[in-house]
Task: structure prediction
Amino acid sequence: MANLANPTVFVDLSRRVLPWLAAATAALFALGLFLSFAAPPDYQQGETVKIMYLHVPAAWMATFIYAVMVAASLGTLVWRHPLADAAQKAAAPLGAGFTFICLATGSLWGKPMWGTYWVWDARLTSVLVLFILYLGLIALWRAIDDPSRAARAAAILTLVGAVDLPIIKFSVDWWNTLHQPASVFRLGGPTIAPSLLVPLIVMSLAFTCLFLTLHLMAIRNEILRRRIARATMLAAADGDRLKPEFAPRGA
Amino acid sequence: MADPHMGFVIAAYAVAAATIAAMIGAVVVDGRRLDAQMARAARALEAARLGARDAGGR
Result:
């Protein structure tokens, strides 16, 4: 585990793991989509229940990725792990993407079931706050030129924003919401029928594998971006012969 | 499958597919661009080091 702190070891390991992860992601998506469309319609919601197979895994990933970013922020601020800030920076756009899928599919599910695309309900609003937090973190990384200062600022904002995670989870219990309460992760077990639960679990595994694949690739990109910056500085120090086009963008 | 709300299901899957494709595309394109930049930067570093050594030898 300590070896993974070495970026070269991490890049080598990710190069070996990525093809397998990508293949597992594709296989799980193929199986999950087949099971989703083969699953029976809900007795009340009809075929619109198929939106659940996208909406629920995306919602889980939205909060899971933020939890990963909280751990990475602690790695940056407390343990000063050399890859922690790269992991945090790489996760933010992916978290924003999954949160967008959660909000958009929820809205498309809400219209036929609730009669409205959006309502300022505690669950929906707290997930919208999470989406805005992701966008804010992406903007923060781009706004500060010095990577170590950007990493510290992003880590602090991530830790402050972590208060939104329990609000998202318990909003349906603390407030009277239009959104339904938890039906999978709850005391007493899931309330969903197995014929609907199995495709949901497979799709959740597919979303998790997709995130792991993209996150590994994005961390590798971050390491590469830093190597380019270092090579550019070394070349400038050695001979000052570099052309401006070698300067990395968005580092 | 003759559900009156099938349009919402199709729209949800289309939005999710487009977003996932955009995420994959962004990471892959960024990686390819950085690989090309890394190769150029490595060549430039090598040239700068050779130039510095030549200048030092004179």
User: Anything to note?
Assistant: Helices of chain A lie at 7-38, 52-79, 84-114, 122-143, 147-161, 164-174, 194-239. The first helix of chain A runs from residue 7 to 38.
